[in-house]
Design goal:
- InterPro entries: Deoxy-glucuronate_isom_IolB (IPR024203), IolB_Bacilli (IPR023770), KduI/IolB_isomerase (IPR021120), RmlC-like_jellyroll (IPR014710), RmlC_Cupin_sf (IPR011051).
- It comes from Lacticaseibacillus parahuelsenbergensis.
- Keywords: Isomerase.
- This is 5-deoxy-glucuronate isomerase.
- There is one protein chain.
- The protein has one helix at about 265-270, and strands at about 5, 10-15, 15-20, 35-40, 45-50, 50-60, 65, 70-75, 90, 95-100, 105-115, 120-125, 130-135, 140-145, 160-165, 170, 175, 180, 185, 190-195, 200-210, 215-220, 225-230, 235, 240-250, 260.
- It is an all-beta fold and about 270 residues long.
- The strands form six sheets. It has a seven-stranded antiparallel sheet, with no helix packed on it. Strands 2-3-4-11-6-9-12 form a seven-stranded antiparallel sheet, with no helix packed on it. A four-stranded antiparallel sheet has the order 5-10-7-8, with no helix packed on it.
- Bound molecules: the ligand O=C[C@H](O)[C@@H](O)[C@H](O)CC(=O)O.
- Ligand LJL3ZJ5K binds next to β14 and β15.
- The ligand O=C[C@H](O)[C@@H](O)[C@H](O)CC(=O)O binds near residues 160 and 170.
């Protein structure tokens, strides 16, 4: 089963276009799933969660989200992910229904993780995001944490968005988090939702294990998804293009402890 899911564009309801739908029924993922929707202005989407928690991220545009008798109007902080403005998200706990109505044309990512433990519905305003500038030389990247492990607002889900400019690498040096060996390393599956600027661009992403029993290098295009059931997962961005990806991570324990590939760890120590 390939790790790469190319974008689709299927109108599933009037004005609601399904761009991505990756879950346990069509992937190797057990702890994570994702939908990406493009909504025309005034279009609506609703869903009832079973034993899943969800993170609704307003990638672009302005929407109103309702869940559990709460209503969050006019959320969303940017017209494009490449505005590099932290956006708003809504956490919805298990068993609840939610609705999304687009006030402008909008793009929504819904991240899911199976659980029977529910946390309160919560608006995660963009201005609470912890911003990080990681890396040096040609592995500089901007990280906007949406739902990091030090925010105790979810049972399993971790959400983060990463910007990697032209000619740089990210998720690099290669690291993995596929061993349930805390405190040294946590086991977290990971989903990448990618966007490119300009849109015709691509990135290379390699997903591989120490024994190379899994070793897949992919050409990833705008709005593609890459799943990382295990292994290292570096991303390289060609000259002239900028990369965005949103990561969904989840596993047995909601903490992000990763292990750098030892042969490449020297990259971090350069002066
Ligand atoms: O494991 C996390 C993901 O690989 C990315 O979020 C990565 O950490 C981003 C980066 O620091 O390059």
């Amino acid at each position: 089963m390939s790790l790469l899911y190319q974008k689709q564009n299927q109108e599933i309801r009037p004005g609601v276009h399904l761009i991505q739908d990756v879950n346990a029924s069509n992937s190797a993922m057990k702890y994570t799933a994702v939908k990406v929707l493009a909504l025309d202005a005034n279009a609506s989407y609703d869903e009832t969660l079973g034993d899943f928690e969800a993170g609704i991220v307003v990638l672009a545009g302005k929407v109103t989200v309702t869940a559990d008798q709460q209503r969050f109007e006019g959320i969303g902080q940017r017209q494009s992910v490449f505005d590099k403005i932290p956006t708003d998200s809504v956490y919805v706990g298990t068993g609840l229904s939610f609705g999304i109505t687009a006030q402008t044309a909008a793009k929504i990512l819904i991240a899911y993780s199976p659980t029977t433990t529910s946390f309160p519905v919560r608006l995660l305003k963009g201005d609470i995001h912890q911003i990080e500038h990681r890396g040096k030389y040609q592995n500089k990247r901007l990280v906007q944490n949406i739902l990091p492990d030090d925010l105790p607002f979810a049972d399993k889900l971790l959400l983060v968005e990463v910007y990697t400019d032209s000619g740089n690498w990210s998720s690099y040096p290669p690291h993995r988090h596929d061993h349930d060996n805390l405190p040294t390393e946590s086991l977290l599956e990971e989903i990448y939702y990618h966007e490119m600027q300009p849109k015709q661009g691509f990135v290379f992403q390699r997903v591989y294990t120490d024994d190379h029993s899994l070793d897949e290098t992919m050409t990833v295009q705008n709005q593609d998804v890459v799943i990382v059931p295990k292994g290292y997962h570096p991303v390289g961005v060609p000259d002239g293009y900028d990369s965005y990806y949103l990561n969904i991570m989840a596993g047995p324990t909601r903490v992000w402890h990763f292990h750098n590939a030892p042969e490449h760890a020297w990259i971090i120590d350069r002066k």
